[in-house]
Structure formats: structure tokens, C-alpha cells
Design goal:
Layout: H1 3-7, H2 13-26, E1 30-39, H3 51-61, E2 63-71, E3 74-84, H4 86-103, E4 109-118, H5 123-126, E5 132-135
Parallel strand pairs: 3-4, 4-5
Antiparallel strand pairs: 1-2, 2-3
């Protein structure tokens, strides 16, 4: 496994390229990042499973935020993807609430999509959201 996959546990190679382009341009805005942040309850495989298998099932089925950035104005939940599609929009709308439920932060929560492009027919929807979008030049 490459060193970059150790830094960004579940990002695909193209996502890593997009993320590193963002970091080169905007990374100084943050004082810390956390990656692969697990939120949500996950799915319990059932009491008939041994405790370690049961916990593994829950852990592996939890939602995972690509990156969480900490900065002077709060916390930013970041979704990194080649194309900001409907799945991405669902994630960026859902993750803030799950993050708040798990970690109970006192800082303001922001959201950011880091991508190469916006999916077809989604720009007008994105324009209505309180989410920032950064597109790789």
C-alpha cells in the first residue's frame, strides 16, 4: 500500500490527486485535518454473532467522512470526489448532522465539496445549499 493511502485511508487515487491540489491551494487555511471519520450507528449484524465480529460489522458499515478540517472559523466537513453527483450531495447534507450527534462540537460546522466537476443538472441545486464547492483548475 502506498504512503498516500496510509494518509488518506479510503480515498481513491484520483481523489487523492484532487485533494492534494486543494491542499496546495487552500491547505494553509486549516490547522488540522482528520480523515476517514466514522459517523452514524452502522448496521448491527445481530446478537447471534460473536462480540468482536458484531463490533467489526458495525464499524465497517458506519458512514465515513472523507476529511474534517479544523480552522479559525470552525469545522469543515469535506467530501472529496471526481464528480459532485447526487450521492455526493446526499453525503454533504447528511454528514454534518451525524458529526454533531457523535462529537457534539461547539464550533460552527461548514461543508465543502472538493471535486473536478459538477454532475449534470446539479449546479442549480448546489447553488441553493450552504455548501462551498472547490473545483480543481
Amino acid at each position: 500500500m502506498s504512503v498516500k493511502n496510509n494518509l488518506y485511508p479510503h480515498l481513491l487515487p484520483l481523489d487523492i490527486e484532487i485533494w492534494e491540489a486543494y491542499l496546495a491551494e487552500q491547505g494553509d487555511l486549516y490547522y488540522r485535518f482528520e480523515y476517514d471519520v466514522r459517523v452514524g450507528a452502522g448496521r448491527d449484524p445481530g446478537e447471534e454473532q460473536p462480540a468482536n465480529i458484531r463490533q467489526m460489522g458495525i464499524d465497517l458499515s458506519q458512514r465515513r467522512i472523507d476529511a474534517v478540517g479544523f480552522h479559525a472559523n470552525g469545522i469543515t466537513i469535506i467530501e472529496i470526489t471526481r464528480r459532485a453527483d447526487m450521492k455526493c450531495l446526499g453525503q454533504i447534507l447528511t454528514y454534518p448532522q451525524l458529526y454533531v450527534e457523535k462529537f457534539e462540537p461547539t464550533e460552527k460546522i461548514h461543508t465543502l465539496i472538493v471535486a473536478d466537476e459538477i454532475g449534470t443538472d446539479l449546479q442549480s441545486t448546489i447553488d441553493t445549499l450552504p455548501t462551498r464547492v472547490w473545483l480543481r483548475p
